[in-house]
Amino acid sequence: SSPKLIALSGSLRKASYTTALLRTLAANAPAGVEIEVAEVADIPVYNQDLDVEPYPEGVARLRAQVQAADGVLVGSPEYNYAMPGSTKNLLDWLSRPYGKAALAGKPALIITTSPASTGGVRAQAQIRGTLAAIGAHPLGGAEVVVPFIDKKTTDGVFTDEGTLSFIEAQVKRLVDEIEVRKK
Ligand code: FNR
């Protein structure tokens, strides 16, 4: 069956460049690959007291979506040289229940963005470490770091063809990794 990818954006703002990029990738998914951008606006701040049944509705939905996916795209900006709390929050929810993390065993492609030349590269390294802690499988090799994203986005659509084809090649590598791990 065709691989299903769930895309998580660590930016909650409506006009997010990061979310726009994920939506553009979803709209242009390679043939035979399904990419869905997850709704994350209703995910509360992680609190272990809330992490009991019945789980908050958004959390239960997100965990089920990630569980059902073959792989994950983790898109994030960078705040103060680090992954934003909103990105870490998603990863924390998806790291539990202990031993049954929705993200455990999932191949993941990290995509960081910035209007600056640095492309969120510091957040990229942190996300990689956190995914490793959770037992996800962040893709090695070329990293997707997108600088000057404000110049590459028009009306909520990521328009830089060169960058898009580079990222699509990395999405194909993720799909290859999924296939290899299924064997
Ligand atoms: C930023 N921004 C930023 N950018 C960066 O490359 N490195 C950084 O350390 C920071 N720090 C930072 C802190 C805070 C609190 C904010 C609000 C912003 C700029 C950031 O990249 C920019 O706002 C992006 O547009 C955010 O991504 P989305 O929301 O467009 O996806």
Automatic annotation (TrEMBL):
Lineage top rank: taxon: Bacteria
Q: Residue ranges of the NADPH-dependent FMN reductase-like domain?
A: 3-148
Tell me the InterPro entries matching this sequence: Flavoprotein-like_sf, FMN_Rdtase-like_dom, NAD(P)H-dep_reductase
Chain segments annotated as coiled-coil in the UniProt record: none
Q: Where are the transmembrane segments?
A: none
PANTHER family from the entry? CHROMATE REDUCTASE, NAD(P)H-DEPENDENT FMN REDUCTASE LOT6
The protein here is known as: NAD(P)H-dependent oxidoreductase
Query: Where does this protein come from, organism-wise?
Result: Asticcacaulis currens
